[in-house]
Amino acid sequence: MLQIAILFLLGLTISGPLLAAETAAQPLNIVVLYADDWRFDSLGCAGNSIIQTPHIDALAARGIRFPRNAVTTSICGVSRATLLTGQWMSRHGNPAFEMFKTPWAETYPAILRDRGYHVAHVGKWHNGKFPTANYDYSRISATRHWVPARGEAGKQGEKIHITALQEQDALDFFESRPQEKPFCLTVAFFAPHADDPSPAQYLPQPNSMSLYVNDIIPVPATANEQAFRNLPPFLANDKQEGRRRWSLRFSNEAAFQTSMKNYYRLITEVDAACGRILDRLKAEGLADNTLILFTTDNGYFHAEKGLADKWYPYEESIRVPLVIVDPRMDKSLAGTTNNAQTLNVDLAPTILRAAGAEPTQRMQGQDMSPLYLGTPTSRQAAAKSWRTDFFYEHSTIRDISFIPSSQALVTPEWKYLYWPDFQQEELFHLTIDPREEQNLASDEKSLDTLRDLRERFAKLRDQAK
């Protein structure tokens, strides 16, 4: 029987090649479980004592979690293009929700299909028109929480929750896939993304409404007016989309509790759907030969700095979960964490190497597997040569009063932010100021650091092209 691999997202860097991990003798099947607007700490295994994510927590207990994982652009369409191409936005050319400019033949689904894989995509797309002909199985769904049911039920006007629909579409894939071929399945859940046109924003399934009823979700320390006013003036105004969405979700204590509880309910629903997909693999005898990777497309503000959603280069927006279960991994690593600076740009190269294929020359990430495969000595060598910083970028959306462009250099100790539309800088010492409250860009004591970070920023910005 073919060995199986379920991947949820892996990360590589712009900083140069790493030692490639050994690949299996037979092709690994690949499953990418990919949620939306779900930030790094919205998991029980990440220390959240309220949220219920038992199935992903169980994955983390079997595999390895990367707490510092981040995205190179924090918006749905761009991040998904990066997943497929292994490239920064500057190279793949999708500034928002368009089809990327990178030739399809250079994406990981195309390369795997060319090698004989049965390639499937379920759920959200957000990169222009979906290229149906490039997939063997596809079920693309709307970006609303309640959508028409499929088949006869849909004809009768019945609605189904988007998470339930996407779960069923994923399970249906297993009914039709050819048993003799390796496969690559991406399940791109829409939840917990808000239902933007709805005044309620977050619309869980009725059977989830009993969850979190007696819980009080802690209000973040920076969810206050002063933190909002401390933002640059082009952000600290009611015209910015991050502030407008905050007014819909978090403008008072009652709204905050309602929004967060429903957001958590949507997450628990996706967790349950992931559990049923994994149960299907187990029922087919594939669980012990499966590489599992869970991640999401971007982070999310939970009212920090008086904001909602993502886009801006602050920690809440750019950091996302990453959990990997790899049957090739030494069992002693089960349940551990790895603080390497992994990125979504690393996913495509990692997926390809796991399948025994080579990344294209224009892919900018690196195979993550040397960080958790091989001997302790080889893993230490991989960790020593891994990236220690990265470049972040985001285009202007609509106009600068809506969502302005932003760029950043992120290191373990510092973050340098540059706002091109306003030629303004910010500088935060993350070690002593993890909430990014004290802008040191004009601090005389930080001038040498600022100069060094500008130079490194310019270098990585050029490399991203």
Automatic annotation (TrEMBL):
Belongs to the sulfatase family. It comes from Planctopirus hydrillae. It comes from the Bacteria. CDD domains: G6S_like (cd16031). Keywords: Signal. Residues 29-357 form the Sulfatase N-terminal domain. PANTHER family: ARYLSULFATASE, ARYLSULFATASE FAMILY MEMBER. Gene3D superfamilies: Alkaline Phosphatase, subunit A (3.40.720.10). Pfam families: Sulfatase. InterPro entries: Alkaline_phosphatase_core_sf (IPR017850), Sulfatase (IPR050738), Sulfatase_N (IPR000917). Residues 1-20 form the signal peptide. One of its GO terms (molecular function) is arylsulfatase activity. This is Acetylglucosamine-6-sulfatase.
